[in-house]
Structure formats: structure tokens, C-alpha cells
Amino acid sequence: MNRTELIAEIRRKKSFLCVGLDPDMNKIPDCLQGEEDVIFAFNKAIIDATLDYAVAYKPNLAFYEAYGLKGMVSLQKTIDYLRRLNVFTIADAKRGDIGNTSLKYAQAYLDPAGDFNFDAITVAPYMGEDSVKPFLQVPDKWVVLLALTSNPGARDFQNLEITGGAADGTALEKHLYEQVLRTSASWGNADNMMYVVGATRAEFLSDVRRIVPNHFLLVPGVGAQGGSLEEVCRYGLNDDIGLLINASRSILYAGKDTDFAEAARAEAARMQQQMQTYVR
Amino acid sequence: MNRTELIAEIRRKKSFLCVGLDPDMNKIPDCLQGEEDVIFAFNKAIIDATLDYAVAYKPNLAFYEAYGLKGMVSLQKTIDYLRRLNVFTIADAKRGDIGNTSLKYAQAYLDPAGDFNFDAITVAPYMGEDSVKPFLQVPDKWVVLLALTSNPGARDFQNLEITGGAADGTALEKHLYEQVLRTSASWGNADNMMYVVGATRAEFLSDVRRIVPNHFLLVPGVGAQGGSLEEVCRYGLNDDIGLLINASRSILYAGKDTDFAEAARAEAARMQQQMQTYVR
What we know:
Number of helices of chain A: 12
Number of domains of chain A: 1
Order of helices and strands of chain A: HEHEHHEHEHEHEHEHEHEHH
Structural class of chain A: alpha/beta
CATH topology of chain A: TIM Barrel
Oligomer: homodimer
Largest sheet of chain A: 8 strands, parallel, barrel
CATH class of chain A: Alpha Beta
């Protein structure tokens, strides 16, 4: 799904909701525990229940890898199912390695002929340009690069103040996460890159928008992690909306029993209703 | 395998060689292409051929994920095979995410009851403390944290100069990679953490040793990437050796035909012979 198609879907559904598919066997309702593939059964029910209100789905790969080979089969079924729908798909993988290795990760999660044909993959920036570019070279696919995350540990390094000159001789931004935005923006463009910017620090979004006014931002942390949708929209919206707001636990585990899909749908609908006032 | 056992193996074999298992279907010799599981057949032959000269093996997960579910089966067979030998095993995964997600990655690659029971996993530091600690909480297992990598992109962010105070109020190191060492060293200890420090910039190893004198360093970049073993040993050795030198392509693809295992063994032996003078 390209940028034009994504924006069209956002306007049609009046929603920029991304549902994070983080299946946890300890939280999946008992009524599904007899299924042959519990994780896929859960995901399919959640997808079907929320499809009217969400434009994107983001399986978090750790929650599949944790169940070994069986979990990877559930992931494969999930992406196959999503590909049949008109939704944007993100492999939340946080990968990144030297060039020849990132090329293999790109092949793993972006190759149309592979088992896991996602539209986009989340990538960690620490290893720099040659760790990110192989993902950007896959036609019609996206990198979602970590910039400012929503967890407490984000302060340890992302918010460090930097000084001196960049490797290419240009002046530097104030904080590491801003420099990550500045440097990486030249590796791709707003048609093949997005950034992860956590909602738990919405005021930082105005600094982010100064550096990358046109890129889509994938925003975790609204919902279970306490961020405010209104704040995120105030600082983060651009003319093309430019936001995907992710919610995982608050939707997946809204209900704990046979009503889980209905409760997930209600929570997705609640978020979409908040969002629709911002979609013009 | 714990630190004492690892050091004992290093002294017994007079080697601190780690063989990177990066199987690439385009490079695996034709004579194996008829095997039912080509990747595992290749890995097994390489392991058998190099076992006298190597103390550690490091499958690079991208090279398995790139082949989808089939690749993950090959990875599972490979780690099962390695577990039967007295070697240190590293999942080169470069993972790292918010706490509850890193916990799932730890379960995926360090859990003795899981499909992929490695001794250690490589982790990316960008998301900070809560992204790393869940791995450290698995008993008797290791984190190998990225500090200074061997690729060109390492300059983009790892070498940025930083200023101001750290989140905990202490004074800062000069470069980001040094601050990653300084901050993260308090999250674990030399019995459950190692660091990735690339050999292509061996002179930086003296700065690394100033900050983490006792930790083991996993050093890529000797061999195919051009680093010098002698330089790495000059700056990086400590009283417990404290180094694992990784070689991947230079061993795996030393031969291109039916002699591939023999050629791999010869290359591993050549490296071990260089190393033995440093093992006391």
C-alpha cells in the first residue's frame, strides 16, 4: 500500500488507527484455547472485529517468536490474512544490522515472494545508514524508523544532547533522536519512510514536525501507556494527516471472555470516533 | 555456558574464535544443494569441521528469517545440534523493544524450554534500560549489547559527541558508544553482559577497556571486513582473555566446492594459530 492509498483509506474510514497484534497466550480468552492455532484464531477475530475502524495492523514479532516455530506459523497465517484486506501492514521487528544482513531482513519481511509479505518494517537506527538503506531499496515498501520511543528507557540515549559536527560535516540537532530524524530523512523520503514517535511525550512532536513535516509518524503509547490522542493530534497532524496511532493491549484485551471481539470492536470504534474530527 | 566455563574452553582450545553461521543459499556449494535441509547440512558440516578451533558459534538470524518458516526450522536444528556440543552459542538477533516485548524476545531465544535455547543474544541499545533488562533477568544467560559496530554507518550516530548530564545525573562520556558502555554496565555485570565492538577501529578498544575492563567483547570485522587480529589483541585483551573474535564469510565460504568443509577447517585453524600466542 503506497502513501496515496494509505491517505485515501484514512479519509474513507475517518480513522488513522493501527491495531497492534501482540498475542499473549496468557491473556487470550479461554474460549479460544481449544483452537488448533490459538494465536491466529485470536488475531483473525480481532481483525474482523476492528476492520471498520482501523487502517493498519502491526504484528509485534516478539509475540510470535516467543512461541518458536509454531508462533512463526501463526504469524505467516496472520500476514496472509491481512494481505487479502485493504490495510497497511507493519512488521514490528525493530531490526537493523550491517548492510548484507539488513538485506536479508528486508528479504524476510518485505519480499512479495516470501512467507512474510508486509508493507513496512520497524527498524532501529543505531547502526546507521547502511543498516537502514537495504530496506528502503525494496520497491513500494516502507521503513518505520525508531526515533523517540514511548518507554522509560528512551531517556537513556535518545534524549542525550549532542554536540560537534555530523559525519557529513553539517550542523547537528540538539538531541540524539532529532539527529536521527535529520540524518535519516535524506536516506529515503516521505513515500517510503515513517518514524516511531511515542505519545507519552507529545510535546516533543512539534520538534519532530520541524524536522520531518511530511513524513507519517507511527505513534505508540496512546491507551495502555497513557498518552493523549488530543495532544498527539495537536502537535503531530499535517495536511495529509501524517499519523498512525497504534493501540495494542487496550483493544486486544478490552474483553476477557467470549465478548472479547465485541469489546475490541467497541474500543476501536471509540478511538475512531475521537479520530474522525481530525480527518478532513 | 557461564564465564568460568567459557574461559576454561578458551584456554583448553587456545582459541577465542567465534564462527558466525550466516548461511546464504547463493554461496552454499552445489554439492549440498540436493540436501533436504540445505542450510542445516551446511551448518553441520561447518560446525564439525571447525569445532577443534572454535569456542563459540553465532547464527545470524537474518540469514534464517530470510528463508521464512523453512529457515526457522534450519535455525532450530542448528541450535539443537550446537547444544549437544560444549560451545558458547549466540543468537545474533540485534533485538530490543519496550520491556514487555523484550521479555518475549528473551523467551524466544534464551528460554531453555523454547525452540531456540541460546546462551546469549545480541541486543541493540537505542531504547535504553527497560529494553535490555528483561534479557538480563534470564538466569545463566547473556546479553551481547551493541556498542561500536564495524560497519560504515557506525559513524552516523555511535560516534556522535555528547554533552550535558546523563539521565541519572552523572557526568557523560565523550561519544555515544562510550556512554552506551558506561550506562549499560550498571544494568548487568561481566558475568551476564558482553559488548559488540568492531575490529575495523581497533584503536577505539583502549577507550572501551577504560570503561569496561572486565567484560568480554564480541569482535566482528576481523577477516572479510579487514580488521587486524593483532591490533584487536593489543588493545582488547584482558587477564581472562575477554575477547571473542567472530569470523563468518572468511570461514564459511573459504572453499566453493566439495572442499568447503576442509577449507573452512583450514581457515579456522589458521586463525586459532594466530590466537594461541595470546592465550596464557
